[in-house]
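lol ok so funny story. i was supposed to be doing the assay writeup but got distracted and ended up predicting the structure for this chain instead. priorities right. anyway since i did it might as well share w the group, maybe its usefull for someone
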Amino acid sequence: MENLKQQVAQLSATYFEEVRALRRHLHQNPELSCEEVQTAGLICRMLDEYGIPYQSGIAGTGVVGLIEGKNPSSMCIAIRADMDALPVTERNEVPYKSLRPGVMHACGHDVHMACLLGAAKILNTLKDQFSGTIKLIFQPSEETYPGGAIRMIEEGVLENPRPLFVIAQHVINTLQAGDAGLKAGAYMASTDEIFITVKGKGGHAATPSQNVDPVVIAAHIILALQQIVSRNADPVMPTVVSFGKITGEGRTNIIPDTVTMEGTVRTYSETWRKSVHERIVRMAGGIAEAMGATCEVRIAYGYPFLYNDPGLTGKLSDLASEYLGDAHVKVLDQRMTAEDFAYFAEKVPACMYRLGIANEREGISSNLHSATFDVDESSLETGIGLMAWMALGILNNEH
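and the output, tada:
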């Protein structure tokens, strides 16, 4: 395996410039969820160039490629990269700045796709040195519920052949370029969307006694719902109830008839998740009724929590240490962010690991989903090599 590891590292260095050019092209031409037509076209052209067979048009714009090694039916693993960008206006002044106003790869999906393409080229070059099949999953619409993962699964992406494991790489700004991070077990939270409408009686702000003020009632509801976290949740169960949008179409001297609120609830237990939903409905409705208003609550189920299979994660951690060195492999903390990769993890043992992309000396450390998010592009060489090495290590059953 040592010779194989050297080959992977050499090919990663050789293909680095090509992968960087791919990432920059993708970054300049981002597409929103369910609109990844040009993105899918580029992926298909690259797979054609590499001589890797694929299917396109899965779940709309998804692409799935297959690399067959020796004895391809002996085992299959899958590697997934998401494709969509975010409705963010980029504020970076870089040569590869987004050319589409209001759309940006602010979550690193351009890196994910470029790395998977680079790893695919390496693995296709070395396909006589592993047994089994590698399924390449380019997934659309991770950023918009219900997400592309569940649609791809419904359309058979985990069949013919069925992978024993699914792996995903995701960038993170809290690790330096050259580092990787893993976390076994529950890693990312479930995410649901809360929509509350408080209906009162509007009127002149100077005569509040003649009104039923939905603004004040909405404020009481928001404050009360925070007690779900502070007083109802088990202290060892991570839970978030947050509201990011409140709309009341009044003025300084007009109390509106209605106020709407939109928020999110996140946690790590399906049982507790259901209980939180019930408490939100009951508390919001009770407060509104007690104050003379009515309240409508709708909670849209989102992605489940992401569980990294401990056995697979342990194998990948060992492989990462072999490739990068122990000092460059970190243990991650749980995150309250969410990922529709969790749907894959519900079906087969899976692991999402993190690729460090920060370089604080160069000022590259902005958070994901921000208008100044960027990556130290040296991380691309690490990313393609590590991904290829992990796949080879699992397929060659050395761990």
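The chain has a mean pLDDT of 97. Residues 100 and 106 are 13 Å apart (CA to CA).
back to the writeup now i swear
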